[in-house]
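User: Good morning. I'm curious how magnesium ion would be positioned relative to this chain. Could you predict the structure with it bound?
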Amino acid sequence: MRLLSTSAHDLELAAKAIREGLLVAIPTETVYGLGADAWNRVALARVFEAKRRPSFDPLIVHVAEPDGASEVADVTVPYARLLADRFWPGPLTMVLPKMARVPDLATSGLPTVAVRCPASMVARQIIRLAGVPVAAPSANPFGYLSPTRAEHVVAQLGDRVDYIVDGGRCPVGVESTVLDLSVDPPLILRPGGLPVELLAEAIPGIQVFDRAVSSPTAPGQLPSHYAPARPLYLVAAGGLGLARPAGRAAALCFGAASARAAAASGLWDRIVDLSPESNPIQAAAALFDVLHELDAAGLEQLWAERLPDDGLGRAVNDRLYKASVK
Ligand code: TXA
Ligand code: MG
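Assistant: Good morning! Here's the predicted structure, ligand included:
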Protein backbone atom coordinates (compact mmCIF):
# COMPACT_ATOMS: atom_id res chain seq x y z
CA MET A 1 0.00 0.00 0.00
CA ARG A 2 1.18 3.49 -0.82
CA LEU A 3 -0.11 6.70 0.76
CA LEU A 4 -0.80 9.58 -1.64
CA SER A 5 -1.39 13.29 -1.07
CA THR A 6 -3.96 15.45 -2.86
CA SER A 7 -1.32 17.09 -5.10
CA ALA A 8 -2.15 17.18 -8.82
CA HIS A 9 0.62 14.65 -9.41
CA ASP A 10 -0.73 12.21 -6.82
CA LEU A 11 -4.34 12.53 -7.99
CA GLU A 12 -3.11 11.60 -11.51
CA LEU A 13 -1.40 8.56 -10.01
CA ALA A 14 -4.57 7.57 -8.15
CA ALA A 15 -6.67 7.93 -11.30
CA LYS A 16 -4.19 5.91 -13.35
CA ALA A 17 -4.23 3.16 -10.73
CA ILE A 18 -8.03 2.97 -10.92
CA ARG A 19 -7.85 2.74 -14.72
CA GLU A 20 -5.38 -0.12 -14.33
CA GLY A 21 -7.77 -2.08 -12.14
CA LEU A 22 -6.13 -1.34 -8.79
CA LEU A 23 -7.90 -0.47 -5.51
CA VAL A 24 -7.62 3.13 -4.36
CA ALA A 25 -9.11 4.43 -1.11
CA ILE A 26 -10.40 7.95 -1.72
CA PRO A 27 -11.74 10.64 0.60
CA THR A 28 -15.31 11.84 0.10
CA GLU A 29 -17.30 14.38 2.10
CA THR A 30 -19.04 11.52 3.96
CA VAL A 31 -16.49 8.76 4.65
CA TYR A 32 -13.52 7.22 2.81
CA GLY A 33 -14.47 4.91 -0.05
CA LEU A 34 -12.60 1.92 -1.46
CA GLY A 35 -12.61 2.83 -5.14
CA ALA A 36 -12.35 0.65 -8.23
CA ASP A 37 -13.20 0.98 -11.92
CA ALA A 38 -16.93 0.17 -12.07
CA TRP A 39 -16.53 -1.40 -15.55
CA ASN A 40 -13.75 -3.77 -14.43
CA ARG A 41 -15.09 -7.06 -13.06
CA VAL A 42 -11.77 -8.22 -11.66
CA ALA A 43 -11.28 -4.94 -9.80
CA LEU A 44 -14.83 -5.19 -8.42
CA ALA A 45 -14.16 -8.72 -7.19
CA ARG A 46 -11.05 -7.44 -5.42
CA VAL A 47 -13.17 -4.82 -3.59
CA PHE A 48 -15.37 -7.53 -2.12
CA GLU A 49 -12.34 -9.61 -1.20
CA ALA A 50 -10.48 -6.70 0.43
CA LYS A 51 -13.50 -5.81 2.56
CA ARG A 52 -14.45 -9.44 3.26
CA ARG A 53 -17.82 -8.20 2.05
CA PRO A 54 -20.50 -10.71 1.12
CA SER A 55 -21.21 -10.57 -2.60
CA PHE A 56 -24.92 -9.97 -1.98
CA ASP A 57 -24.18 -6.43 -0.76
CA PRO A 58 -24.08 -4.09 -3.79
CA LEU A 59 -21.71 -1.14 -4.24
CA ILE A 60 -22.33 2.57 -4.84
CA VAL A 61 -21.12 3.81 -8.23
CA HIS A 62 -19.64 7.33 -8.03
CA VAL A 63 -19.65 9.79 -10.91
CA ALA A 64 -17.70 13.07 -11.30
CA GLU A 65 -20.63 15.10 -12.64
CA PRO A 66 -24.36 14.80 -11.98
CA ASP A 67 -24.88 14.20 -15.73
CA GLY A 68 -22.57 11.20 -15.57
CA ALA A 69 -25.28 9.20 -13.81
CA SER A 70 -27.00 8.52 -17.14
CA GLU A 71 -23.99 6.40 -18.14
CA VAL A 72 -24.84 3.81 -15.50
CA ALA A 73 -28.54 4.30 -14.68
CA ASP A 74 -31.92 5.26 -16.08
CA VAL A 75 -32.32 8.82 -14.82
CA THR A 76 -35.73 9.31 -16.45
CA VAL A 77 -37.60 7.73 -13.51
CA PRO A 78 -39.67 10.20 -11.48
CA TYR A 79 -37.68 12.56 -9.23
CA ALA A 80 -34.20 11.44 -10.38
CA ARG A 81 -33.41 14.57 -12.37
CA LEU A 82 -35.04 16.90 -9.86
CA LEU A 83 -33.04 15.43 -6.98
CA ALA A 84 -29.79 15.44 -8.98
CA ASP A 85 -30.30 19.15 -9.75
CA ARG A 86 -31.11 19.95 -6.16
CA PHE A 87 -28.77 17.75 -4.12
CA TRP A 88 -25.81 16.70 -6.33
CA PRO A 89 -22.93 16.92 -5.87
CA GLY A 90 -23.66 15.83 -2.31
CA PRO A 91 -24.34 13.07 0.24
CA LEU A 92 -27.31 11.50 -1.58
CA THR A 93 -27.24 8.05 -3.21
CA MET A 94 -30.06 7.22 -5.62
CA VAL A 95 -31.04 3.63 -6.39
CA LEU A 96 -32.13 3.60 -10.05
CA PRO A 97 -32.79 1.04 -12.79
CA LYS A 98 -29.35 0.01 -14.03
CA MET A 99 -27.92 0.14 -17.54
CA ALA A 100 -27.17 -3.29 -18.98
CA ARG A 101 -23.42 -2.65 -19.21
CA VAL A 102 -23.01 -2.20 -15.44
CA PRO A 103 -21.46 -5.47 -14.20
CA ASP A 104 -23.72 -7.64 -12.04
CA LEU A 105 -20.94 -7.78 -9.48
CA ALA A 106 -21.38 -4.05 -8.76
CA THR A 107 -25.11 -4.47 -8.14
CA SER A 108 -25.07 -8.01 -6.70
CA GLY A 109 -27.29 -9.09 -9.56
CA LEU A 110 -30.01 -6.53 -8.76
CA PRO A 111 -31.77 -4.76 -11.65
CA THR A 112 -30.94 -1.46 -9.92
CA VAL A 113 -27.72 0.43 -9.29
CA ALA A 114 -26.86 2.88 -6.49
CA VAL A 115 -25.37 6.12 -7.89
CA ARG A 116 -23.83 9.12 -6.22
CA CYS A 117 -22.04 12.29 -7.32
CA PRO A 118 -19.97 13.19 -4.23
CA ALA A 119 -19.35 16.79 -3.17
CA SER A 120 -15.67 16.19 -2.38
CA MET A 121 -13.53 17.98 -4.98
CA VAL A 122 -10.74 15.46 -4.46
CA ALA A 123 -13.06 12.51 -5.13
CA ARG A 124 -14.54 14.21 -8.18
CA GLN A 125 -11.12 15.07 -9.59
CA ILE A 126 -9.92 11.47 -9.22
CA ILE A 127 -13.06 10.13 -10.92
CA ARG A 128 -12.78 12.76 -13.68
CA LEU A 129 -9.14 11.90 -14.33
CA ALA A 130 -9.83 8.17 -14.23
CA GLY A 131 -12.45 8.65 -16.94
CA VAL A 132 -14.60 5.82 -15.57
CA PRO A 133 -17.35 5.63 -12.97
CA VAL A 134 -15.87 4.52 -9.65
CA ALA A 135 -17.53 1.84 -7.54
CA ALA A 136 -16.74 2.49 -3.91
CA PRO A 137 -18.12 1.03 -0.70
CA SER A 138 -16.96 2.56 2.57
CA ALA A 139 -13.29 1.61 3.06
CA ASN A 140 -13.72 -0.60 6.13
CA PRO A 141 -13.87 -4.34 6.72
CA PHE A 142 -17.49 -5.48 6.35
CA GLY A 143 -19.61 -4.64 9.39
CA TYR A 144 -16.98 -2.46 11.07
CA LEU A 145 -16.89 1.33 11.62
CA SER A 146 -16.60 3.48 8.50
CA PRO A 147 -13.33 5.43 8.12
CA THR A 148 -13.38 9.22 8.42
CA ARG A 149 -9.58 9.64 8.19
CA ALA A 150 -6.88 8.09 6.01
CA GLU A 151 -5.31 6.65 9.19
CA HIS A 152 -8.47 4.59 9.78
CA VAL A 153 -8.12 3.04 6.33
CA VAL A 154 -4.44 2.32 6.90
CA ALA A 155 -5.24 0.60 10.20
CA GLN A 156 -8.23 -1.38 8.92
CA LEU A 157 -7.37 -2.34 5.36
CA GLY A 158 -3.65 -1.51 5.10
CA ASP A 159 -2.07 -3.91 2.66
CA ARG A 160 -5.36 -5.00 1.12
CA VAL A 161 -5.49 -1.75 -0.88
CA ASP A 162 -3.00 -0.45 -3.45
CA TYR A 163 -3.21 3.29 -2.71
CA ILE A 164 -4.79 5.51 -0.08
CA VAL A 165 -5.34 9.19 -0.91
CA ASP A 166 -5.06 11.23 2.28
CA GLY A 167 -7.59 14.05 2.04
CA GLY A 168 -7.78 14.69 5.77
CA ARG A 169 -10.90 14.30 7.83
CA CYS A 170 -14.28 13.78 6.12
CA PRO A 171 -16.45 16.82 6.92
CA VAL A 172 -19.91 15.16 6.98
CA GLY A 173 -18.76 12.08 8.87
CA VAL A 174 -21.68 9.72 8.19
CA GLU A 175 -22.43 7.90 4.94
CA SER A 176 -24.78 9.22 2.27
CA THR A 177 -28.54 8.96 2.49
CA VAL A 178 -29.65 6.05 0.27
CA LEU A 179 -32.95 6.62 -1.54
CA ASP A 180 -34.62 3.95 -3.68
CA LEU A 181 -36.33 5.62 -6.65
CA SER A 182 -37.10 2.31 -8.37
CA VAL A 183 -40.16 1.83 -6.14
CA ASP A 184 -43.34 3.85 -5.78
CA PRO A 185 -43.46 5.70 -3.45
CA PRO A 186 -39.70 6.29 -3.17
CA LEU A 187 -38.16 4.69 -0.08
CA ILE A 188 -35.26 5.91 2.06
CA LEU A 189 -33.18 2.79 2.73
CA ARG A 190 -30.54 4.43 4.91
CA PRO A 191 -30.70 7.84 6.62
CA GLY A 192 -27.40 9.67 6.12
CA GLY A 193 -25.64 12.91 5.33
CA LEU A 194 -28.59 14.47 3.52
CA PRO A 195 -31.39 15.09 6.04
CA VAL A 196 -34.58 13.11 5.41
CA GLU A 197 -36.61 16.32 5.86
CA LEU A 198 -35.06 17.87 2.74
CA LEU A 199 -36.00 14.83 0.67
CA ALA A 200 -39.51 14.84 2.10
CA GLU A 201 -39.93 18.44 0.91
CA ALA A 202 -39.04 17.34 -2.62
CA ILE A 203 -41.03 14.06 -2.64
CA PRO A 204 -44.51 14.11 -1.13
CA GLY A 205 -45.36 10.65 0.22
CA ILE A 206 -41.74 9.52 0.54
CA GLN A 207 -41.35 6.49 2.83
CA VAL A 208 -38.59 5.84 5.35
CA PHE A 209 -37.50 2.25 5.93
CA ASP A 210 -38.55 1.26 9.44
CA ARG A 211 -36.94 -1.82 10.92
CA ALA A 212 -39.88 -2.16 13.32
CA VAL A 213 -42.32 -2.87 10.48
CA SER A 214 -40.27 -4.19 7.53
CA SER A 215 -37.56 -6.77 7.10
CA PRO A 216 -34.34 -5.63 5.44
CA THR A 217 -34.12 -5.74 1.66
CA ALA A 218 -30.75 -3.98 1.37
CA PRO A 219 -27.77 -5.14 3.42
CA GLY A 220 -27.13 -1.62 4.76
CA GLN A 221 -30.37 -2.15 6.64
CA LEU A 222 -28.99 -5.18 8.47
CA PRO A 223 -29.24 -4.36 12.15
CA SER A 224 -25.62 -5.12 13.03
CA HIS A 225 -23.33 -2.84 11.06
CA TYR A 226 -20.96 0.07 11.54
CA ALA A 227 -19.98 -1.66 14.78
CA PRO A 228 -17.03 -1.02 17.10
CA ALA A 229 -15.30 -4.05 18.62
CA ARG A 230 -16.40 -3.04 22.15
CA PRO A 231 -20.04 -3.56 23.17
CA LEU A 232 -22.06 -0.38 22.75
CA TYR A 233 -25.24 0.22 24.75
CA LEU A 234 -27.74 2.75 23.45
CA VAL A 235 -30.10 4.58 25.82
CA ALA A 236 -32.78 7.25 25.37
CA ALA A 237 -31.82 10.91 25.09
CA GLY A 238 -30.96 12.11 28.59
CA GLY A 239 -30.92 8.49 29.82
CA LEU A 240 -27.23 8.06 30.67
CA GLY A 241 -28.00 8.77 34.32
CA LEU A 242 -29.78 5.41 34.46
CA ALA A 243 -26.87 3.50 32.89
CA ARG A 244 -25.17 0.79 34.95
CA PRO A 245 -21.76 0.42 33.29
CA ALA A 246 -19.50 -2.46 34.27
CA GLY A 247 -15.72 -2.28 34.03
CA ARG A 248 -13.95 0.63 32.37
CA ALA A 249 -16.64 2.44 30.44
CA ALA A 250 -17.11 5.54 28.32
CA ALA A 251 -20.18 7.75 27.96
CA LEU A 252 -21.02 9.35 24.62
CA CYS A 253 -23.06 12.44 25.41
CA PHE A 254 -24.93 14.91 23.24
CA GLY A 255 -24.78 18.40 24.69
CA ALA A 256 -23.08 20.19 27.58
CA ALA A 257 -25.86 19.53 30.12
CA SER A 258 -25.67 15.81 29.52
CA ALA A 259 -21.87 15.80 29.73
CA ARG A 260 -22.02 17.70 33.04
CA ALA A 261 -24.51 15.20 34.45
CA ALA A 262 -22.31 12.31 33.34
CA ALA A 263 -19.29 13.90 35.03
CA ALA A 264 -21.25 14.47 38.25
CA SER A 265 -22.38 10.82 38.38
CA GLY A 266 -18.82 9.54 38.79
CA LEU A 267 -19.72 6.42 36.76
CA TRP A 268 -17.46 6.97 33.76
CA ASP A 269 -13.79 6.50 32.95
CA ARG A 270 -14.19 8.60 29.82
CA ILE A 271 -16.81 11.14 28.84
CA VAL A 272 -17.06 12.36 25.26
CA ASP A 273 -19.47 15.08 24.20
CA LEU A 274 -20.36 14.65 20.51
CA SER A 275 -21.49 18.28 20.37
CA PRO A 276 -21.34 20.68 23.33
CA GLU A 277 -23.73 22.97 21.39
CA SER A 278 -26.19 20.09 20.83
CA ASN A 279 -25.74 20.41 17.08
CA PRO A 280 -26.47 17.15 15.24
CA ILE A 281 -24.31 18.15 12.24
CA GLN A 282 -21.33 18.47 14.58
CA ALA A 283 -22.24 15.15 16.23
CA ALA A 284 -22.37 13.37 12.85
CA ALA A 285 -18.98 14.79 11.89
CA ALA A 286 -17.46 13.55 15.15
CA LEU A 287 -19.23 10.18 15.47
CA PHE A 288 -17.00 7.64 13.69
CA ASP A 289 -13.87 9.52 14.69
CA VAL A 290 -14.85 9.22 18.34
CA LEU A 291 -15.89 5.57 18.01
CA HIS A 292 -12.58 4.66 16.36
CA GLU A 293 -10.70 6.42 19.13
CA LEU A 294 -12.71 4.91 21.99
CA ASP A 295 -12.48 1.46 20.43
CA ALA A 296 -8.70 1.66 20.67
CA ALA A 297 -8.70 3.15 24.18
CA GLY A 298 -8.77 -0.08 26.21
CA LEU A 299 -12.30 0.35 27.53
CA GLU A 300 -14.71 -2.50 28.16
CA GLN A 301 -18.01 -0.80 27.38
CA LEU A 302 -19.35 2.18 25.46
CA TRP A 303 -22.66 3.78 26.39
CA ALA A 304 -24.36 6.34 24.19
CA GLU A 305 -27.53 8.37 24.37
CA ARG A 306 -29.81 8.91 21.38
CA LEU A 307 -30.06 12.32 19.71
CA PRO A 308 -33.37 14.02 18.91
CA ASP A 309 -34.60 12.15 15.81
CA ASP A 310 -34.45 14.95 13.26
CA GLY A 311 -31.95 16.32 10.74
CA LEU A 312 -28.65 14.46 10.98
CA GLY A 313 -29.73 13.20 14.41
CA ARG A 314 -31.63 10.49 12.57
CA ALA A 315 -28.48 9.30 10.77
CA VAL A 316 -26.45 9.37 14.00
CA ASN A 317 -29.17 7.38 15.83
CA ASP A 318 -29.26 4.84 12.99
CA ARG A 319 -25.47 4.30 13.21
CA LEU A 320 -25.55 4.13 17.03
CA TYR A 321 -28.38 1.61 16.88
CA LYS A 322 -26.52 -0.55 14.35
CA ALA A 323 -23.33 -0.28 16.42
CA SER A 324 -25.28 -1.45 19.46
CA VAL A 325 -26.64 -4.66 17.93
CA LYS A 326 -24.37 -7.69 18.24
O1 TXA B 1 -21.35 7.99 1.77
C1 TXA B 1 -21.36 6.88 1.23
O2 TXA B 1 -22.40 6.40 0.75
C2 TXA B 1 -20.05 6.11 1.16
C3 TXA B 1 -19.07 6.90 0.30
C4 TXA B 1 -17.78 6.14 0.04
O3 TXA B 1 -19.70 7.25 -0.91
N1 TXA B 1 -20.26 4.79 0.63
C5 TXA B 1 -20.90 3.82 1.34
O4 TXA B 1 -20.97 2.62 0.66
O5 TXA B 1 -21.37 3.98 2.44
P1 TXA B 1 -21.42 1.25 1.36
O6 TXA B 1 -21.13 0.22 0.35
O7 TXA B 1 -20.75 1.11 2.66
O8 TXA B 1 -22.96 1.40 1.51
C6 TXA B 1 -23.79 1.35 0.37
C7 TXA B 1 -25.18 1.03 0.75
C8 TXA B 1 -25.30 -0.37 1.28
O9 TXA B 1 -26.16 -0.35 2.38
C9 TXA B 1 -25.90 -1.13 0.11
O10 TXA B 1 -26.65 -2.23 0.53
C10 TXA B 1 -26.77 -0.06 -0.52
O11 TXA B 1 -26.01 1.12 -0.40
N2 TXA B 1 -27.02 -0.33 -1.94
C11 TXA B 1 -26.12 -0.33 -2.94
N3 TXA B 1 -26.70 -0.68 -4.11
C12 TXA B 1 -28.00 -0.89 -3.85
C13 TXA B 1 -29.13 -1.27 -4.63
N4 TXA B 1 -29.03 -1.50 -5.94
N5 TXA B 1 -30.33 -1.39 -4.01
C14 TXA B 1 -30.44 -1.13 -2.68
N6 TXA B 1 -29.40 -0.78 -1.88
C15 TXA B 1 -28.20 -0.66 -2.45
MG1 MG C 1 -20.30 0.65 4.51
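The longest helix spans residues 280-295. DSSP finds ten helices and 15 strands in the chain.
Let me know if you'd like a different ligand tried.
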